[in-house]
Amino acid sequence: MKNYYKFLFLLIGISLTSCKSIISNQGKPLNYNSLELNHKYEIQEFKAKIHKIKITSIDGKNVYGISKKGDSITIDKKQIREVKKVKIAGSIVVGIVAIATVIFVPI
């Protein structure tokens, strides 16, 4: 029974680390309508700096957000290299379905 618990925690850990979907990258240009206000995103600049922010507003030149620490962050749209959206709930559901499949489907 302990092996099942170890496997369960391992599967949940893996699903939580892969809970981001790519909104834009080098091959997929950023569509500014895809960014939603008051949602959490991980934005990487061309300088390789990564910001984890909750977007508060968007204008013609900049994206504005708030970090977990409460700092206001302004990012120039031309400097955005990659945008990832954080989706924790979806990953948890996928993990639970995977666990249920392993447990209930006979091999």
- The CATH topology annotation of the largest domain reads as SH3 type barrels
Can you count the helices? 2
Percent of sequence in beta strands: 35-45%
Helix/strand-derived category reads alpha+beta
How many strand units? 6
Percentage of residues assigned to helices: 25-40%
The description of the largest β-sheet is: 6 strands, antiparallel
Provide mean pLDDT, rounded.
81
Oligomer: single chain
CATH architecture of the largest domain: Roll
Task: Note the gap between the termini.
Answer: 18 Å
- Sketch the topology as an H/E string, one letter per element: HEEEEEEH
Q: Overall 3D geometry? A: elongated
What's the number of structural domains? Answer: 2
Gyration radius, rounded: 18 Å
Spatial ordering of strands, largest sheet: 1-6-2-3-4-5
Q: Which stretches are low in confidence, meaning pLDDT under 50 for 5 or more residues running?
A: none
CATH class of the largest domain: Mainly Beta
Keywords: Membrane, Transmembrane, Transmembrane helix
Transmembrane segments: 88-105
Describe this structure in words.
The chain crosses the membrane at residues 88-105. Keywords: Membrane, Transmembrane, Transmembrane helix. With 107 residues, the protein is an alpha+beta fold. The protein has two domains: 1-19 and 88-107; 20-86, Roll (SH3 type barrels), CATH 2.30.30. The chain has two helices and six strands; from the N terminus they run H-E-E-E-E-E-E-H. It has a six-stranded antiparallel beta sheet with strand order 1-6-2-3-4-5, with no helix packed on it. A hairpin with a 4-residue loop joins strand 4 and strand 5. It is elongated, with a radius of gyration of 18 Å. The model has no long low-confidence stretch (mean pLDDT 81).
